[in-house]
Amino acid sequence: MATTPPDLDKPSTQLGTTRSASGVRLGDRIFRGSSMGAGIFVLVVMAAIGTFLLIRAIPSLTSNESNVLTTQNFDPDNNDWGIAALAYGTLVSSIIALILAVPVAIGIALFISHYAPRRLAVILAYVVDLLAAVPSVIFGLWGLRFLSEHILPIERWINDWFGWIPVFGGSVNSASSLFTAGVVLAIMILPIIAAVCREVFLQVPRAHEEAALALGATRWEMIRTAVLPFGRPGIISATMLGLGRALGETIAIALILSPSYAINASVLEIGGSTFAANIALRFGEIAETGRSALIASGLVLFLITLLVNMGARAVIARRKEFSGASA
Amino acid sequence: MSTTLLPTNEPTREPESRSLLPETRPLPGWMPWALAVAAVGLSVLLLLALGSLNLPLAVVVSVPIFAALVGLASARLEGTRRAKDRIVTVVVYTCFALAILPLLSVLITTIQRGASHLTPYFLTHSQRGIGPRDEGGGIYHGIIGTFEQVGIAALIAVPIGLLVAVYLVEYGRGALARAVTFFVDVMTGVPSIVAGLFVYTAILLGFGTTPKGVWGGLALSILMLPVVVRSTEEMLKLVPNDLREASLALGVPKWKTIVSIVMPTAIGGIVTGVMLSVARVIGETAPLVLTVGATDSINFNAFDGPQASLPLIIYDQAFRSSPYAQDRAWATALTLILLVLILNLVARGIARWKAPKAR
């Protein structure tokens, strides 16, 4: 550098043509390209999941002799199958899970964000997160071999007192019901709902809270007037994320439910099945057309969870624009 | 609130304090505790009268009784607004207890039923030649399978995940970056069974190949990728911009700035994220059901023939009603929980130890 005289004709390229210049460009180009490629790869994988499932689902859809949307039976090897019962079981167990989990999760989030002592809150939040770390197969084992015997008396009790409501009607003699499945799902989706709610509750502007308290509000009134309205989009998207998890949960449900392909109004009676559990349970014993039908049901599940998750993320993203909330 | 300045027993000041909060005097500090004892006593009496006294039921019954007692006492002494506040406090604390209860129950049950069977023999022998109704056997084949499959998943997901995160934080602008961020988020919600079905349709059916450990690893990597991206992204964002600018100002190329300044600064958080993502997929069962086959024998080669894995062993043994199979299921579950817990604890430890000091 020091020995070469400066080239006055091209002063602007002088900086760009130093020894490392081409190296810089090449290294940057490779790095930028590969990281961008990795980003595109994510989009490709998402598209590929849908495409491959669709391609493999078509044979069973064309050979099916029953109406896919309204048939409850699932016997694809005899070309008699539909997703009605699966959709019903998936929806009902997920709704039960949401009804049980959302209020409790909001309570947990409030506890950690506004009630627990500051120093303790971090540890308690971590304990709740540990619940999310327990593998689903262990929840299934626990549900099948521990919870079912303890929840059966409760289900009987509900059946005795509220049996006149069709949802709780029927005869209860086993805990392998959609209700038990819903309870286990509720436990499994608690941490994610609580975590997202907690993040949003922590982002409520201090000024709002202090204003409410300064006006003489009690802690609950402050939460009701400042925290919950601010956090509502967060609660909604957390609920949808929880719903997405519940819809796709496989192994715990497969272990707990005694599968049957019938739409039963009672959630306490034995039976019912879900998309995901049905795939795991039937995959081993079914023939080629059957697998194609399972793939078709998997495609439906994928599309439903995709919609639910996209909805949840869209709600969060819209919130981000004016509050900087992230989840 | 202003009790130190305005003595509440002074009658002339009464209307002013009422205008802020209809409060006469706060509930004495010992009162909630006394009410709690009373609530437990009442619920025990009630259950004795009904003839069905047991510990869980007593706890369940005493909580609402306690809430009611506190509410009533507070309503009489402090006014209804304070009463409502106290009831909500009880409800919020109860919610937290409700979340801890299943976690404790799962842990305690697993330890109780699994600990006595978790022996060195169990960890170093396979299930080969041992029927589901027989005693004995172990999970060595599953441990090998799980480690290899998760290792393959990490080998695929970690580099790609790091690159995606680098793209999003350092390069990504515009519509493409927004789409990638959005779909990474959506990808975290892809059901694990769908990841398994994808690998089954794309690889096993697509290439006409048989179930192998490596395909399980591939399916797991799809579940792992978004977790790695999200956690790495958060960590890269924490790296102060001053560091980047200082490096660039010294003439260091951008890629080198990222590789030797940004990444090392965030390495603690990145390692934590990777370990948490490993902890997340190590217990995944559904994709493996469709992709790795299953075997009772030891198979070191993930690229040839079916392989076992810990979650698959639990899934298989849990269905069997033989007490020996039950023992094996719980002992395997305990092994898996211990693995997940260790991964979590070590990950948090690293996070605390090497956290970027950006706050």
Features:
heterodimer; A: 327 residues; mainly alpha; MetI-like fold; 11 helices; disordered N terminus; B: 359 residues; 2 domains; 14 helices; 73% helix
Report the total helices of chain B.
14
Element-by-element helix/strand order of chain A: HHEEHHHHHHHHH
Fraction in helix of chain B: over 70%
Q: What's the story with the biggest beta sheet of chain B? A: none
Distance between the termini of chain B: 34 Å
DSSP helical segment count of chain A: 11
Task: Tell me the domain tally of chain B.
Answer: 2
Helix and strand element order of chain B = HHHHHHHHHHHHHH
- Terminus-to-terminus distance of chain A: 51 Å
Q: Which CATH class of chain A?
A: Mainly Alpha
- Radius of gyration of chain B, in Å, reads 29 Å
Membrane topology (chain B): Multi-pass membrane protein
Protein name (chain B): Phosphate transport system permease protein PstA
Subcellular location (chain B): Cell membrane
InterPro entries (chain B): MetI-like (IPR000515), MetI-like_sf (IPR035906), Phosphate_PstA (IPR005672), Phosphate_transprt_permease (IPR051408)
SSE map:
The complex is a heterodimer of chains A (327) and B (359).
Chain A: H1 11-16, H2 21-63, E1 74-75, E2 80-81, H3 84-115, H4 118-133, H5 136-162, H6 178-202, H7 206-214, H8 219-248, H9 251-256, H10 275-282, H11 288-323
Antiparallel strand pairs in A: 1-2
Helix pairs in contact in A: 2-11, 3-6, 3-8, 4-6, 5-6, 6-8, 7-8, 8-11, 10-11
Chain B: H1 14-20, H2 31-50, H3 55-78, H4 80-114, H5 120-124, H6 140-171, H7 174-188, H8 192-205, H9 213-238, H10 241-249, H11 254-282, H12 286-291, H13 310-318, H14 323-353
Helix pairs in contact in B: 2-3, 3-4, 4-14, 6-9, 6-11, 6-13, 7-9, 8-9, 9-11, 10-11, 11-14, 13-14
